[in-house]
């Protein structure tokens, strides 16, 4: 198998309007397409993260809460690559988000930190 990248990451949110506002207005991801699926009473919002990478934001009636902390089996977090971690932290804080202290990856020497989406999904910003 040969891959050429990650096409998308799918996220199920508990409050569609709140999460849509967060990912579009706060994080600035442009909307590719928004679809209401009547049979499922569900929205699917396709967002452009980078040239060939998307987030699929789903809403479902009464989804269960996230099972546990990020150290459990399964997807741990999503990391977004940025040019300037400090500048991104300043921006996120200006939008009222709590951001962890900036750390340095002991393996790569790159700066990174974490913040959370409206459903407490851990999101990382990682220096390019």
From TrEMBL:
Pfam families in the cross-refs: Glyoxalase (PF00903)
Gene Ontology molecular function: metal ion binding
Sorted UniProt keywords: Metal-binding
The keyword Metal-binding is annotated on this UniProt entry: yes
Gene3D superfamilies with a match to the protein in the record: 2,3-Dihydroxybiphenyl 1,2-Dioxygenase, domain 1 (3.10.180.10)
InterPro entries on file: Fosfomycin_Res_Enzymes (IPR051332), Glyas_Bleomycin-R_OHBP_Dase (IPR029068), Glyas_Fos-R_dOase_dom (IPR004360), VOC_core (IPR037523), YwkD-like_dom (IPR037478)
CDD domains: VOC_Bs_YwkD_like (cd08352)
Keyword Metal-binding recorded: yes
Residues covered by the VOC domain: 5-128
PANTHER family assigned: FOSFOMYCIN RESISTANCE PROTEIN FOSX, LYASE, PUTATIVE-RELATED-RELATED
Protein name: YaeR, glyoxylase I family protein
């Amino acid at each position: 198998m040969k891959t050429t990248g990650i096409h998308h990451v799918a996220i199920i949110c508990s409050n569609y309007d709140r999460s849509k506002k967060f990912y579009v207005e706060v994080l600035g991801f442009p909307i590719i397409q928004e679809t209401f699926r009547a049979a499922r009473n569900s929205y699917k919002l396709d967002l452009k993260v980078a040239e060939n990478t998307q987030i699929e934001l789903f809403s479902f009636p009464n989804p269960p809460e996230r099972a546990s902390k990020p150290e459990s089996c399964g997807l741990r977090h999503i990391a977004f690559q940025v040019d300037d971690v400090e500048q991104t932290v300043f921006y996120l804080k200006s939008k009222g988000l709590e951001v962890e202290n900036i750390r340095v990856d002991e393996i790569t020497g790159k700066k990174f930190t974490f913040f959370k989406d409206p459903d407490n999904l851990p999101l990382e910003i990682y220096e390019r």
